[in-house]
């Protein structure tokens, strides 16, 4: 379907919604949410009826549509929306576009603004059909491999009867794409017989917190197969919650109160005696109340206040201005405040409850635990579930129990989902069977990659050797990378073992410490930001020359410094006494700093420098070695191409944390004392490195004391040549041959050309 046509119809629908809402004047917040959701439901329901009618089919909710005042008043407009495109309209796409926009009061009337916040709250990024088919097919075939009755012909009635009674669920069903894919898979691999498909449908289950999503699921499945889907099991509610279900689910859903305990459907799930297969793409969100996002719709004046304590004053004042709006805010917030306790009481959740709660991990553990004794689960989740230590307990449980079957890791570079192109997600299959190893594919960008990239087999022991602390999956695209990691992991100790007494830190948080931070030099000490640093460069960029508006706008950019570099001009300044208080445990003069927010697809991933100890924002992490020699050695290791390569293979997501660094294998300190002749000079590897790093910092007087003593004078015509020489020296310590170092460097083609 033409995207522009869908955009056009959504604009027409939004005009219809806005006209209806503005007839009532300015509304209470709760009433506005309810009205918008009711209109979304009525419009999607009406369109579903008209589409069904055009095909000569009866819509399950036909009486509800025909008896509604809304349809009576707007039938002609709705028919005009469809026109000659009536056979091709995609209700899922229309609803997703509606979710992307929010309704706000502009001072005179309500208007739509393009904003994905509601969709963020639902985590409702629907899965492309071709992708959901491949993933569903893999899960189904995995289940057959483990459970197909021996000796039964796959074309026999006995086999068809067995497949038709398999209980299959999607606990965050959305538009029903995974249930539809399951029907397509069984049609392809088992039978397309109409009676067979009808029986399969009777054993499909889907749940969602959004009534409109359930409506679209019902429509998509019934419309695709022209079958009676009245026995399709679609359930409104939140399957994560552990309370007896309430009678007011529809009312709570209409208010977007998805985490209220009465949204629980645990009783309904408990009555089903285990599922054979659970599929889906659960929400990818952190369960926390986002105060500024909430007020961005209802009261931008409050939302625009960055400091939490100042916001609280305005919110408390608003209680007197509008008690009813304040009551909705408190009820909405209280749902989030109490949800963690509620989840901890759920007997089906244990390993996913550690740290900050992520819905994809919670849904995965819940899905795994509602399987029957032979079942399989295949969910599309963020790759952090299999890569980050925060999710380690759940992942390690799956590995230790030998239930993990396969992991396929995708990178979003081709925007499969409308999120950051650097983000990764994974399709993870587990089964209640004993598996000696699991298969891994990584670097998948699209459906063609999914079919072409070869799997590698990994054991739990492999993960222990490669990531001894967290035992999570590295970012290996092929067996060569995995073998390299295994080799260096066996040959070298980890950073944490070689440098056990360094002190890591990330002290200043611009939001959490906002009451101690100002924007003027007289407010305190300058705060260094990640934008200011590069490899061996502490004066990479500055805010000098930027206007006030450009400095403090969202995603503000700094100005790169090329010639005549100066100490960067900061945006923020921290109170000196508060800085002394939070930094009292750090005493070293010099500190190694690196950009925390980075990516494995950047020109370089590890960007480290050295500076005197100073306040740094959360975009910088740092460590102190309390020893000048170790400081120089660590800086050289960090900025080496081999260390950077290992970081790329081991870093989950886009945050280079200390937990990643601690697990990286590094040369021993004593190896830096080896005497070698290099470029005509005979001295220790350490001294060769020190003179070169000293030359790189020759124009930064803040660190000159660190490089005062030199065994010989060094000069280079090019910075790149100097850095390459340091790379060669570090490569000697990693015992890497020329062929391997070239292969490693080839992963940084944006930095090293083929000739280099």
From TrEMBL:
SUPFAM superfamilies: S-adenosyl-L-methionine-dependent methyltransferases. It catalyses: a 2'-deoxyadenosine in DNA + S-adenosyl-L-methionine = an N(6)-methyl-2'-deoxyadenosine in DNA + S-adenosyl-L-homocysteine + H(+). One of its GO terms (molecular function) is site-specific DNA-methyltransferase (adenine-specific) activity. Its EC number is 2.1.1.72. Gene3D superfamilies: Vaccinia Virus protein VP39. Transmembrane segments: none annotated. Keywords: Methyltransferase, S-adenosyl-L-methionine, Transferase. GO terms for biological process: DNA modification; methylation. Residues 202-417 form the Type II methyltransferase M.TaqI-like domain. The keyword Methyltransferase applies. This is site-specific DNA-methyltransferase (adenine-specific). It comes from Facklamia miroungae.
């Amino acid at each position: 379907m033409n995207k522009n046509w869908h955009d056009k119809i959504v604009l027409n629908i939004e005009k219809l919604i806005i006209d209806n809402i503005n007839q009532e004047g300015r509304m209470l917040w709760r009433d506005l949410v309810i009205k918008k959701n009711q209109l979304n439901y009525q419009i999607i329901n009406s369109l579903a009826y008209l589409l069904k009618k055009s095909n000569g089919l009866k819509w399950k909710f036909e009486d509800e549509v025909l008896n509604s005042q809304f349809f009576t008043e707007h039938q002609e407009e709705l028919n005009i929306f469809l026109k000659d495109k009536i056979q091709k309209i995609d209700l899922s796409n229309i609803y997703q576009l509606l979710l992307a926009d929010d309704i706000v009061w502009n001072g005179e009337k309500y208007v739509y603004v393009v904003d994905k916040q509601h969709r963020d709250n639902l985590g409702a990024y629907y899965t492309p059909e071709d992708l959901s088919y491949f993933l569903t097919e893999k899960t189904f075939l995995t289940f057959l491999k483990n459970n197909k009755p021996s000796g039964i012909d796959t074309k026999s009635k006995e086999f068809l009867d067995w497949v038709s009674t398999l209980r299959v669920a999607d606990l965050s069903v959305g538009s029903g794409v995974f249930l539809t894919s399951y029907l397509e898979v069984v049609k392809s691999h088992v039978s397309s017989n109409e009676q067979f498909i009808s029986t399969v449908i009777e054993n499909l289950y889907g749940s969602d917190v959004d009534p409109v999503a359930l409506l679209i699921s019902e429509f998509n499945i019934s419309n695709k197969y022209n079958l009676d889907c009245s026995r399709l099991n679609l359930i409104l509610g939140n399957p994560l919650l552990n309370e007896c279900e309430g009678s007011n689910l529809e009312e709570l859903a209409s208010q977007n109160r998805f985490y209220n305990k009465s949204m629980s459907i645990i009783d309904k799930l408990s009555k089903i005696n285990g599922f054979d297969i659970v599929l889906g793409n659960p929400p990818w969100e952190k369960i926390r109340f986002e105060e500024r996002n909430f007020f961005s719709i209802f009261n931008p004046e409050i939302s625009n206040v960055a400091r939490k304590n100042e916001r609280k004053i305005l919110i408390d004042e608003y209680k007197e201005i509008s008690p009813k709006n304040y009551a909705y805010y408190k009820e909405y917030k209280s749902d989030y405040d109490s949800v963690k306790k509620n989840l901890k009481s759920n007997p089906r959740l244990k390993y996913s409850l550690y740290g900050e709660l992520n819905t994809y991990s919670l849904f995965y553990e819940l899905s795994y635990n509602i399987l029957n004794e032979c079942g399989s689960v295949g969910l599309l989740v963020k790759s952090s579930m299999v890569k980050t230590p925060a999710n380690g307990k759940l992942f390690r449980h799956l590995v230790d129990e030998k239930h993990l079957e396969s992991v396929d890791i995708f990178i979003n570079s081709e925007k499969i989902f409308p999120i950051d192109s650097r983000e990764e997600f994974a399709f993870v299959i587990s089964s209640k069977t004993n598996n000696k190893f699991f298969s891994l594919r990584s670097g998948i960008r699209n459906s063609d990659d999914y079919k072409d990239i070869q799997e590698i087999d990994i054991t739990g022991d492999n993960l222990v050797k490669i990531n001894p602390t967290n035992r999570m999956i590295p970012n290996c695209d092929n067996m060569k990378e995995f073998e390299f990691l295994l080799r260096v992991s066996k040959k070298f100790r980890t950073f944490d073992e070689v440098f056990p007494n360094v002190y890591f830190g990330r002290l200043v948080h611009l939001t959490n410490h906002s009451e101690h931070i100002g924007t003027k030099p007289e407010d305190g000490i300058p705060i260094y930001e990640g934008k200011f640093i590069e490899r061996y460069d502490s004066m990479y960029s500055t805010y000098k020359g930027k206007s006030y508006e450009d400095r403090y706008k969202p995603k503000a950019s700094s100005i790169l410094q090329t010639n005549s570099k100066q100490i960067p001009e900061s945006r923020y300044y921290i109170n000196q006494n508060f800085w002394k208080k939070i930094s009292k445990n750090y005493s070293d003069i010099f500190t190694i700093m690196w950009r925390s927010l980075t990516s494995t697809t950047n020109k370089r991933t590890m960007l480290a420098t050295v500076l005197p100890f100073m306040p740094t924002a959360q975009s910088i992490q740092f460590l102190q070695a309390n020893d000048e020699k170790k400081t120089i050695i660590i800086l050289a290791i960090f900025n080496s191409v081999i260390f950077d390569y290992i970081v790329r293979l081991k870093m989950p997501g886009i945050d280079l944390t200390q937990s990643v660094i601690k697990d990286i294998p590094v040369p021993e300190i004593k190896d830096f004392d080896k005497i070698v002749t290099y470029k005509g000079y005979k001295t220790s590897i350490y001294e060769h490195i020190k003179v070169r790093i000293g030359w790189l910092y020759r124009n930064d007087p803040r660190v000159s004391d660190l490089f005062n003593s030199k065994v010989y004078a060094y000069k280079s015509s090019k910075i790149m040549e100097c850095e390459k020489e340091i790379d060669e020296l570090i490569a000697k310590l990693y015992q890497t041959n020329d062929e391997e170092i070239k292969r490693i460097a080839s992963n940084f083609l944006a930095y090293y050309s083929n000739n280099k």
